[in-house]
Design brief:
The complex is a heterodimer of chains A (288) and B (197). With 288 residues, chain A is an alpha+beta fold. Chain A is built from eleven helices and 14 strands. The radius of gyration of chain A is 19 Å and the shape is globular. In chain B, strand 1 and strand 2 form a beta hairpin. The longest helix of chain B is centred in the N-terminal third of the chain and has 15 residues. The chains are: A alpha+beta (288), B alpha+beta (197).
Chain lengths: 288, 197
């Protein structure tokens, strides 16, 4: 398999990249290429022009900010998973980045590319939604910030304009006393999430003081499990309380669960409750 | 230039009737068969492979694994699944294990690539090659070049991995002979001979 014919540019700066996107209709941003190239090989997409931002150093790296982290869009999953700073401030993100694909995929795949692709089976959209991350987007009109939960609009669709590039991701540190976990049912060959659950649970005096639970892989965009969160808040986090909260996820799906040859919509929704339960148990065990 | 313009025209026509959309706006087509080969957009590349520099012009769409196998003639690197799942095309790209079926040749321009042919030191096999030989870590051998490159990265990051860590580290490499047990034993053996536990 090989992609359709395309032109190739390797800009040296974000400004140059944005100009190329703006002046070439049908152009696409290429970073690590591990989401885009597979689609190009299947001829599901045929960009007229590739704008390879992969060597723009300014887009790489992880910085501590007041109360959190800022991660350049070109930072690879491998770098994020191995980062002491991410493991300390947002361990949920490091854990999930280390579960994307396999080691070789994580060497190439970037956080920006992962999010920009808006693949519902991807791990990071659910995780960044759970963390309440802010995404910085740069285009001809300058910069704008978008909440992770407002980014994806559907299957492989999001709010990025044709001249815009996701340039960085900002994440707040998880609250002290909270525990977090990402668990997934990975497709055995692709390692994509059939179901992925990100959970952050705050514990105070033996009771749940805060909860953020998001499910990926079931619907076309990450599902915030509000019913699970409500059931958890104020509970004593006993096994029974976690059972009850996890079962509540059935009420959070909006009716557009996906089906494919590997897993039906019904199956995904049923198994989601199991994985929510596991994520909650892991998060609670790490709290404190 | 004319070729490139024709190329865009065709894509636009396809895009107009297409349903799959990426990002907010641009819809890009599933091109019909006529599209392939209608234009020929070549770009200059310069890549160092196993210490030797190769330069020339390739199509922008060419995948690195095809450059390595068909243009350079190093056929140790295999094309297995061609969907970045099986790992038989794994090479080192600037030192990092990379699936060469999912990288464009032009993306690797300016980079250094090491393939299975570049691991041995003259006629002295790399300890991983030696260990795969000694422990019968292969049956048909198709997955072996990718397995060894992936195992090389694993041992650089973790010189004395447990069996479970070896299995986890080789998650991106599939052996359809299912000879995993001896592959794990081979990596363990190589770790010992390379100085790990």
């Amino acid at each position: 398999m090989f992609p359709a014919q395309t032109e190739y540019h390797r800009p040296n700066s974000v400004t140059e990249a944005v100009d190329l996107l703006a002046s070439n209709e049908g152009a696409k941003v290429l970073a690590g290429g591990h989401s885009l190239i597979p689609l190009m090989k299947l001829r599901l997409v045929a960009p007229t022009v590739l704008v390879d931002i992969g060597r723009i150093e300014a887009l790489k790296g992880i910085e501590a900010t007041d109360g959190g982290l800022s991660i350049g869009a070109l930072t690879t999953q491998a770098t994020i998973a191995a980062s002491d700073l991410v493991n300390e401030r947002a361990p949920l993100l490091a854990e999930a980045a280390g579960m994307v694909g396999d080691p070789a995929v994580r060497n190439r795949g970037t956080i920006g590319g992962n999010i920009s692709h808006s693949d519902p089976a991807s791990d990071l959209p659910a995780v960044l939604t759970a963390l309440g991350a802010t995404l910085k987007v740069t285009g001809k009109g300058g910069d704008r910030s978008v909440g992770a939960s407002d980014f994806a609009t559907g299957l492989l669709e999001n709010i990025l304009g044709e001249d815009e590039i996701l340039t960085s991701v900002s994440v707040s540190s998880i609250p002290s006393g909270a525990g977090s976990a990402y668990v997934k049912f990975a497709h055995p060959a692709s390692r994509y999430a059939v179901i992925g659950v990100a959970a952050i649970v705050g514990v105070s005096d033996g009771r749940c003081s805060s909860a953020s639970v998001v499910v990926g892989g079931v619907e076309t965009t990450p599902t915030r499990a509000s019913s699970v969160e409500s059931a958890l808040l104020g509970s004593d986090l006993s096994d029974e309380a976690l059972d009850k909260a996890a079962a509540a996820v059935a009420g959070d799906f909006q009716g557009d669960a996906m089906s494919d040859i590997f897993a039906s919509a019904e199956y995904r929704q049923a198994v989601a409750a199991v994985y929510v339960r596991r994520a909650l148990a892991a998060a609670v065990s790490r709290a404190g | 230039m004319e070729g490139a313009l024709a190329c865009r025209f065709i894509v636009d026509k396809i895009a107009a009737s297409d349903t799959l959309r990426l990002n907010g706006g641009a819809g890009h087509g599933r091109p019909d068969r006529q599209f392939t080969g209608r234009c020929n957009v070549k770009v200059p590349v310069e890549i160092t492979i196993n210490g030797k520099s190769y330069s020339g012009e390739v199509e922008a769409r060419q995948l690195l694994v095809h450059f390595i196998r068909e243009e350079v003639g190093l056929t140790g690197t295999k094309v297995g699944c061609d969907t970045s799942q099986c790992g038989s095309c794994t090479v080192k790209l600037d030192g990092a294990a990379t699936k060469a079926c999912t990288v464009l040749t032009v993306q690797a321009s300016g980079s250094e690539v090491t393939t299975i042919e570049g691991l041995a030191d003259g006629s002295d096999l790399h300890p991983l090659q030696e260990a795969f030989w000694n422990k019968h870590g292969l049956q048909c051998g198709f997955c072996t070049p990718g397995m060894i490159i992936a195992a090389d990265e694993l041992l650089r990051k973790n010189p004395s991995p447990s069996r479970s860590e070896i299995r986890h580290g080789l998650e991106g490499n599939i052996c359809r002979c299912t000879g995993y047990q001896n592959i794990v034993l081979a990596v363990e053996d190589a770790a010992r001979s390379m100085g790990g536990a």
